[in-house]
Amino acid sequence: xxxxxxxxxxxxxxxxxxxxxxxxxxxxxxxxxxxxxxxxxxxxxxxxxxxxxxxxxxxxxxxxxxxxxxxxxxxxxxxxxxxxxxxxxxxxxxxxxxxxxxxxxxxxxxxxxxxxxxxxxxxxxxxxxxxxxxxxxxxxxxxxxxxxxxxxxxxxxxxxxxxxxxxxxxxxxxxxxxxxxxxxxxxxxxxxxxxxxxxxxxxxxxxxxxxxxxxxxxxxxxxxxxxxxxxxxxxxxxxxxxxxxxxxxxxxxxxxxxxxxxxxxxxxxxxxxxxxxxxxxxxxxxxxxxxxxxxxxxxxxxx
Length: 303
Hints:
Radius of gyration: 20 Å
Structural class: alpha+beta
């Protein structure tokens, strides 16, 4: 009954009640919650995946081991645009969310449910969180307890979270306390098969082919990382000002699940996941996708 009363209260209400918050806070919320910037191709490629449904009030009832959140209404959700971490950060992320269980949250669904009936959503508290984080996904990313990732969605609905994550990485928080995997460490990447990784490295070669583009981080014959990008996603990368010749020799950040073919490989599903870095390892002003699983069966070594 409590959940039903909460649900009735929010029906038809806006996500942000600006009357109770400053204009600056409203602007911050819009910056973080906006699905895609005017130059993002998410609106073109993933409009359905990022479309916001009717907002409602609910509360966290339970946090599952793999990040599934059961709400007081019985709905099962996943925080949008985040990858749930492995242990020990997973325990810390659950504890972080458990503290918020007693609070009213505005639930903003994104797209449709997945194959298990879980809904991706943004969860925005009625009262700001401890350090001023406007929502739960932003709070976890800011604490270094989760990495940004679209998961099975066709688009990264909240590319602004990449900036939030970058702040946590610069401070060495949570996930970012340990060094990132090395793109040239073939054995180390092989040991991470099936796991999500974030890698920063210098591009050795970019091969554009009819079906997909290959971004190599090692010379031909060496054991290291190759990133494959589908034709559709590569078009998005090009739309944001990056080209094959322009990437060669530059430092980039990529992320995804490690697969083993002839060598370690990652498939890039959305343009935002190719981030151009400056020489200090921070985001370049012309960063790949934000200036806004592809099927791949080969790596740079297949050519």
